[in-house]
UniProtKB/TrEMBL annotation:
<dbReference type="GO" id="GO:0008295">
    <property type="term" value="P:spermidine biosynthetic process"/>
</dbReference>
<dbReference type="Pfam" id="PF02675">
    <property type="entry name" value="AdoMet_dc"/>
</dbReference>
<dbReference type="InterPro" id="IPR016067">
    <property type="entry name" value="S-AdoMet_deCO2ase_core"/>
</dbReference>
<protein>
    <submittedName>
        <fullName>Adenosylmethionine decarboxylase</fullName>
        <ecNumber>4.1.1.50</ecNumber>
    </submittedName>
</protein>
<keyword id="KW-0670">Pyruvate</keyword>
<keyword id="KW-0620">Polyamine biosynthesis</keyword>
<dbReference type="InterPro" id="IPR017716">
    <property type="entry name" value="S-AdoMet_deCOase_pro-enz"/>
</dbReference>
<keyword id="KW-0704">Schiff base</keyword>
<dbReference type="GO" id="GO:0004014">
    <property type="term" value="F:adenosylmethionine decarboxylase activity"/>
</dbReference>
<dbReference type="InterPro" id="IPR003826">
    <property type="entry name" value="AdoMetDC_fam_prok"/>
</dbReference>
<keyword id="KW-0456">Lyase</keyword>
<dbReference type="GO" id="GO:0005829">
    <property type="term" value="C:cytosol"/>
</dbReference>
<keyword id="KW-0865">Zymogen</keyword>
<keyword id="KW-0068">Autocatalytic cleavage</keyword>
<keyword id="KW-0210">Decarboxylase</keyword>
Length: 134
């Protein structure tokens, strides 16, 4: 199985990086453009400012972390299958009105037998926890 990962650091951003509605609107549009499905969305607000948002996707995840006082945000998109997160770099830069970007793009490969064993082990752990909850 092949996975693609984009790490995107945006600086000099003029968009409101601490506005949850604005950021979620941008991330929702990114999901639409990538044709991925968000199954859960989590938000954590920091004091006095800063925001982290994680979208758990059917295809993996998107995470967003901001430092508004430095006009900086970091976005991580990890995906499987035919989804290529590199296709939305321009959209994200324009949406967050970034003055500069640094991106790292990588391919990751998971060996099928290893993946099958991990899933099997996780299932066993899940059953152990279930037995203690009842």
């Amino acid at each position: 199985m092949h996975y693609k990962q984009l790490l995107l650091d945006l600086t000099g951003c003029r968009a409101d990086l601490d506005n949850e509605g604005t950021v979620k609107s941008i991330l929702d549009k990114a999901c639409e453009m990538l044709e991925v499905n968000a199954v859960k969305k989590f938000t954590h607000r920091y004091s006095p400012y800063g925001l982290s948002i994680v979208y758990v996707l059917a295809e993996s995840h998107i995470s967003y972390h901001s430092w508004p006082e430095h006009k900086t945000c970091n976005i991580d998109i990890f995906s499987c299958g035919g989804v290529d997160p590199k296709n939305i770099v321009r959209f994200l830069c324009e949406s967050f009105q970034a003055a500069a970007k640094k991106e790292k793009y990588s391919f990751r490969n998971v060996c099928e037998p290893i993946l099958a064993k991990q899933v099997q082990n996780f299932s066993g752990i899940q059953q152990d926890f279930s037995a203690h909850n009842h």
